[in-house]
Amino acid sequence: MSLDRRMLNYLGLESVEDLFADVPEHLRLEQFDLPLGMSEQEVCRHVDAILSLNRSAVDMPCFLGGDCRQHYVPAAVEEIVSRTEFRTAYTPYQPEMSQGMLQALFEYQSLMAELVGLDVVNSSMYDWTTALGEAARMCMRINRRKRFLVPRAMSPQKRSVLNNYVLGTGMTVGEYGYDQITGEVDMDDLVGRMGDDVAGVYVEVPNAFGIIDSRAPELKAMAGEALLVVGVDPLSMAVLRPPGDYGADMVIGEAQWLGSPMNCGGPMLGLFACRERDARRSPGRIIGMTKDSNGRDAYTMALQTREQHIRRDKATSNICSNEALVAVGAAAYLSIMGAEGLTSLARSNMRRTRRLMEMVDAVPGFEAPEFTGQHFDSFVVRCPMRVEKVNRLLLRNGIIGGMHLGPTCPEFDSCMILSVNEVQTDADHENLIELLEGMA
Predict the structure, then answer these.
(1) What is the mean pLDDT of the chain?
(2) Is it the case that residue 315 has pLDDT exceeding 70?
């Protein structure tokens, strides 16, 4: 008896068609209007023809920015993460079998901790948005308060994920404004929204406008018993004061570009750091270094907060995977660049950002920057026409334009954010300016 027949007998059915008895007859298709099959070679030719229509940041300069960034990845990084010991490894549940992966993740944690100035970094979160959600919940676990304050100028994606993470916890999310002149935190508005029920205050450095917020170091003293969560671009930490130095309780961010291309938007690498006193309340996993029975260095999973490993009511996160390979890439990138290389790159991009701002502002009809605060590698441009039209014209001429700011702040519907990186050339900047001048 065939397998199909045995399956039907087990289900008490006469034919395969009986499986679809609940589907009304007028909705059933007797046959599908599909073309004839193709050979493997024909399929490859057909797919290649479709893919050739794509135009990506590999083929043209990209000024889009946002939380998924384009930066140059040294060939050595790809060589390291391509090793089968890393590429085929999943989360190392058996430490004694995964010393290489555990050591690489330990190095990632150590390098990131040095960058952000905090004691503990986990390995790791899905992305910046999920790290924010976890940070809000961790604030509530620590001080039992249930209001979390975020900047009004924050990407709608982060806000949406944050709202999902706090759903069902009783926590509410409030927002504070920005200074209309500098683009920094509106301290008066933030102070007015503080209260005994505030679990944490979140600030981004640089923020959604590309501004390096000089008021961030003042927030810890103002927050009182509330916890301070700082969102960062790791590259900016090469030239800015680490948040841990001015009292941040947690630091989160996006580290995808440290050793990984944009990959159509993923996988990403969520940075999550905290103080040692709060480590047991943090999500994810922490790798530690110890000694084995022979006195040699050994690496082990020091903390694992998944509900699969500890009692569910004690779990602090249900994260079921991690970005281990991306974290290994980040560790390799930081090791190759070194402190001097990372600082040089950050300073170079800041200089080129200021130069491009001046060039854009000189174009009739375009105004840049929108704010007077210090910029890192992005800035807001006010356009004389709809941003969608500007970007459409740029794309038609081989440039991926800026990110529309309207979805983040409706009052900036005629503005976009241009981001600068080391992949762009001076010729790319000049070409951008030439195209903008043609629109004026």
Answers:
(1) 91
(2) no
The residue among 333, 253, 281 whose CA lies nearest residue 76 is 333
pLDDT of residue 96: 60
CATH topology of domain 75-333: Aspartate Aminotransferase; domain 2 (3.40.640)
CATH of domain 343-439: 3.90.1150.10
Any idea how long the chain is? 440
Any idea where the domains of the chain sit in the sequence?
3-42, 75-333, 343-439
Q: Report pTM.
A: 0.88
Ramachandran class of 81: left when φ > 0, alpha when ψ lies in -120 to 50, beta otherwise: alpha
